[in-house]
Amino acid sequence: MAIWQARMVETSRVKYIGIVEAIEEDIKRRILKPGDRLPSQRLIANELMVDLTTVTRAINEAARRGLVETQRGSGSFIAQTTFNQYNSLQLTQGKTLDLSMNNPPIPVGINIEQKIADSIIKSGNASHQPNRHLFYQETAGHPDDRAAGSEWLSEKIPQLDQDKVLISSGAHSALFSILNHLHQQGATHIAAPEFSYPGLRAMADQLSLVLTGIDMDEDGIKLDCLENKCREQSIDALYLIPNIDNPTTATLPLARRQAIADLAEKYNFILIEDDPYYPLLEQKITSLYSLAPERCWHIATVSKCLSPSMRVAYIVAPDLQHALRLTDDLRISHLMAPPLMTAVVSDWIDTGMIDSVSQEVKKENQRRQRIAKDIFVDHTLFSDDSASHIWMPLRKGFRALDLSEQANSLGISIVPSTAFVMSTSQRQAVRISLGAEPDINTLHTGLSMLADLFQPGKLRSKSIV
């Protein structure tokens, strides 16, 4: 058993962090190993010529990060589980394993960048309109691109009028433009599921909209809670991700969709249907737009079934007049969607490439879901076989922020449920995304490390005083 030669990282912002980072560096370099003993705190203080309180603070921080275990009467030792934190290439290089960003995985065997380049070249060589996408476009999108988008959407919105279809620079921009449009029309209160897309909350704050969360179960928002809110206060619009919800993975059953459409008619509110995951569904379900076309805005982005680098989303307006008005808002906010990316997506729709790549993304999602379910077999887990994320409720007495902080100390980023709360919620959970890490072995390691946090005595809840 080696005894550590005390040192400090001189470039650290404060001395005690310098001691912690020195311990961490020596673990990564295998100078320190699990079970190795640290000198007494007084010896470390004397060696580094710092106050004893500085060393005590450093040891406590190292213990919080899972690097050190302190045994009363025996001293401090390198934790037995420490190497689990650094047994992947990414973590040994000091990079965080990203299980927070909800990216679709890169499909195995498909060079998406090359296929994008091929489509751009193809567009430039087109004999009828070469280089058309190198010029400014109409804000609503070129008619040919809107026609392609209408074709792609026709499976879930049959007999779609192309004039109602607009092209936006991603779903985030589309949602903000729709909310701003509704706000200009007098909307003040927006409802959404209890947990939902964090960007919605930021947009509501920016536009001074009142945001109300609706309680959920495993199938999505509860109808009785929605109707109770409608009776209690005026609701101008309801935002939903009906398929493979982000973050809860819930998919609204058809009967509940019809009931929501009926409530929208009864209480006169608008529906905003954000539907990025439809191409990944195993069983297709009728869209909210098809159930209530006269009061629904539909958003469909390619970022979750192809790549977030392709900033193209389609908006379907309730009618032509709303489409024209929203075009004015889009012109102010971002002028036009990126023409080259739009050209690529149109080409992929025309050739069927969009379906081929989406299916490969779906297969990779399914592979990663199987890994996650095997690792978290003893834990409550909400997921969809084709989703790029999982939703994990925490047992009573534990806080999502505590788990995310402890995961971060292992070099793994996940998202606590607090990031998704629309108004208030007491339920604690975390979202774990499976697609951003390209290496499947590194993903397996990271998920195993997270599962280890749930072992008895590992997941610690902080005392608040």
UniProtKB/TrEMBL annotation:
GO molecular function, one term: transaminase activity
SUPFAM superfamilies found in the cross-reference section: PLP-dependent transferases, Winged helix' DNA-binding domain
Gene3D superfamilies linked to this entry: Aspartate Aminotransferase, domain 1, Type I PLP-dependent aspartate aminotransferase-like (Major domain), Winged helix-like DNA-binding domain superfamily/Winged helix DNA-binding domain
Alphabetized UniProt keyword annotations: Aminotransferase, DNA-binding, Pyridoxal phosphate, Transcription, Transcription regulation, Transferase
Ranges where the HTH gntR-type domain occurs: 13-81
Family: In the C-terminal section; belongs to the class-I pyridoxal-phosphate-dependent aminotransferase family.
PANTHER family cross-referenced by the UniProt entry: HTH-TYPE TRANSCRIPTIONAL REGULATORY PROTEIN GABR
Name under which the protein is recorded: PLP-dependent aminotransferase family protein
The organism of origin for this protein: Methylophaga aminisulfidivorans
